[in-house]
Structures are given as structure tokens and as C-alpha cells.
Amino acid sequence: EAGVAQSPRYKIIEKRQSVAFWCNPISGHATLYWYQQILGQGPKLLIQFQNNGVVDDSQLPKDRFSAERLKGVDSTLKIQPAKLEDSAVYLCASSYGAGGLYNEQFFGPGTRLTVL
Amino acid sequence: TQLLEQSPQFLSIQEGENLTVYCNSSSVFSSLQWYRQEPGEGPVLLVTVVTGGEVKKLKRLTFQFGDARKDSSLHITAAQTGDTGLYLCAKRGYALNFGKGTSLLVTP
Fold this sequence. Notes:
The complex is a heterodimer of chains A (116) and B (108).
Chain A: E1 5-7, E2 10-13, E3 19-24, E4 31-37, E5 44-50, E6 53-56, E7 65-68, E8 75-79, E9 88-95, E10 106-107, E11 111-115
Parallel strand pairs in A: 2-11
Antiparallel strand pairs in A: 1-3, 3-8, 4-5, 4-9, 5-6, 7-8, 9-10, 9-11
Chain B: E1 5-7, E2 10-14, E3 19-24, E4 32-37, E5 44-49, E6 55-58, E7 61-65, E8 71-76, E9 85-92, E10 96-98, E11 102-107
Parallel strand pairs in B: 2-11
Antiparallel strand pairs in B: 1-3, 3-8, 4-5, 4-9, 6-7, 7-8, 9-10, 9-11
């Protein structure tokens, strides 16, 4: 079974530039998550989708970050404009359902963003 | 957001040694999960503990959930270089609330 795919794996940009990340979840998984993991910290949820609807985006900096999952499958996360503090690994995860103890989340390898 | 504190932050040991890492909270967990994250990869679920006092074993890894469900520990027996990674505990809700992790380095 194919896992969660993310691209690109690495991205280096200058501050104030824009960047976009792509995620393809495991087939059949209705729930998709984007996490931000700053060096030395655990992942922090940015946004959660259930199919193509947003369940939770309370920690998404909406002045610069946006995300979409138009057809309920693939998702993109965009940052515009980027700041130095956005340097982090951006992890995508998916699960069959939402919540519940046994809806295991499967993570992709992440995109490492460096903002100079 | 429930704050999860993990200790130690860093740990460097030699192969064959035993170690324990901890995850604590001031609030009660309904359940707790442990993940391992290897460099360049996403976290991978190791175990879920639900019942206070519960002990689960996964080969050389032993996970314990405190009786009061406010703390948990992960003990590794006879560590191997393949155990190197970031060990994260997480509270499970609709999404995951992670601690900062313990970075473990096992050297030959």
C-alpha cells in the first residue's frame, strides 16, 4: 500500500517569496492534516480536512498561510509571503476517519522549508 | 491545548544500554500515543495506551501509562543503533497534540 506522498522534499526560498507544498494521502483516507514541525519541537497541527471541508484551522496563520483540498483527495498548503520563522518541516498526514482512538494517522516524509 | 512535557530532551547512549524517557501532563489523558520519528521521515505510531496502569510491550520497548493517566514512560532494553530517532508522545483528539520529544542517539 502506498503511503502519504509529499513534494517537494526540500525547498529554499527568500523571505517574502511564496511557496506551495503538495500532499497525496493514502487512497480512501477521508481525513487529511497539515502539521508544522519547527526544529527541536513536536509537530503542531495547522489545518485538518474532512473530505474537502475544513474541520479545524484554528492554528493556521491565515494572513499568510492557505490550504485547500478541492476534490477531497490531494491537498496544497501555500505560504505567501514567507517569513524567517516559517522555516520548518511541513508534514502531511492522513487517516481513514476523524478522531477516535483507532483512526491511526499516517505521516508523509515532510517538506523541509528553509527561509533565508 | 494540553501541555505535554517530555524528558530528557536529549539522550546519547551506547548500544546495549537501557534507557527510559518520560511524558508528563498536569491534566488527565483519555489516551496517549508514542511515536518514533527518524531523520527525514514523518512520525510512526508505536503504541496507544488507554487504561491507567497499562503496560504494553513491543519487542525491546516497554510502554507504561501511569495509574492516574497523567504520565507515561517508554523503556528500551538493550538499545540498538536502529533505535536512534525522536520519540514523541501525543494526546489523541481529533488531531494530535505532541510533546517536544526526546532525541535519542545510540552509538555502536
